[in-house]
Amino acid sequence: DIQMTQSPSVLSASVGDRVTLNCKASQNINKYLNWYQQKLGEAPKLLIYNTNNLQTGIPSRFSGSGSGTDYTLTISSLQPEDVATYFCFQHNSWPTFGSGTKLEIK
Amino acid sequence: EVKLVESGGGLLKPGGSLKLSCVASGFTFSNYWMHWVRQAPGKGLEWIGEIEYDGTETNYAPSIKDRFTISRDNAKNTLYLQMSSVRSEDTATYFCTTYTAWGQGVMVTVSS
């Protein structure tokens, strides 16, 4: 199984900050990496698919990058409504999720 | 509007069985692989299985293999998860998803 390691597990930042969330795979996942946002009590929402493709309707402040085993989700200017847990997800082989990064506002 | 609506959750005892349903609308259901993902209370997401467009291929996570069965009825735009021999660790919210669209989830609690 491919293990997905997200860091940090908790991130506290101020409104307007540029925020970077990391996801590392235990082996090459060929850019088959999605990012999901999950707010408390809600279903996950797809933000980015296949590393760097912004899902329809998602604000352009969200972007993704990476290759091989290392991937990043960037929020260019943090907004209050971005408070959530963010999960990376690989679907290169047997699908696996990362353990999540909880994003808080300072 | 794309919509997935799960139902069938509830409380059951260890060793029991339950069948979840997920009704799809707003897209051509038969064109999509469908997946089940679960989330234990306060925990992360766990992919548990998938089914091909016409139901001929299914894949399962080791944690539920041989206990759970995924099926679909394309005429009814419905996905199913048959849960058997359940354990306390199967307590979770179960989501059906295309990876893009997600249902609201349905809670399953396994407790004696």
Could you explain the architecture of this structure?
The complex is a heterodimer of chains A (106) and B (112). In chain A, strands 2, 4, 5, 6, 9, 10 and 11 form a 7-stranded mixed β-sheet that branches. Chain A has strands spanning 4-7, 10-13, 19-25, 33-38, 45-49, 53-54, 62-67, 70-75, 84-90, 96-97, 101-105. The N and C termini of chain A lie far apart (36 Å). With 106 residues, chain A is mainly β. With 112 residues, chain B is an all-beta fold. Chain B is built from no helices and 10 strands. Chain B has a 6-stranded mixed β-sheet, with no helix packed on it. In chain B, a hairpin with an 8-residue loop joins strand 9 (92-97) and strand 10. Chain B is globular, with a radius of gyration of 13 Å. The interface between A and B is medium-sized, with 20 and 17 residues.
Write the layout of secondary structure elements.
The complex is a heterodimer of chains A (106) and B (112).
Chain A: E1 4-7, E2 10-13, E3 19-25, E4 33-38, E5 45-49, E6 53-54, E7 62-67, E8 70-75, E9 84-90, E10 96-97, E11 101-105
Parallel strand pairs in A: 2-11
Antiparallel strand pairs in A: 1-3, 3-8, 4-5, 4-9, 5-6, 7-8, 9-10, 9-11
Chain B: E1 3-7, E2 10-12, E3 18-25, E4 34-39, E5 45-51, E6 58-60, E7 68-73, E8 78-83, E9 92-97, E10 106-110
Distance between the termini of chain A: 36 Å
**Total number of helical segments of chain A?**
0
Can you count the beta strands of chain A? 11
Please trace the helix and strand order of chain B, writing H or E for each element.
Answer: EEEEEEEEEE
| 3D shape of chain B | globular
Q: What is the H/E string of chain A?
A: EEEEEEEEEEE
Please summarize what this structure is:
The complex is a heterodimer of chains A (106) and B (112). Chain A is mainly beta and 106 residues long.
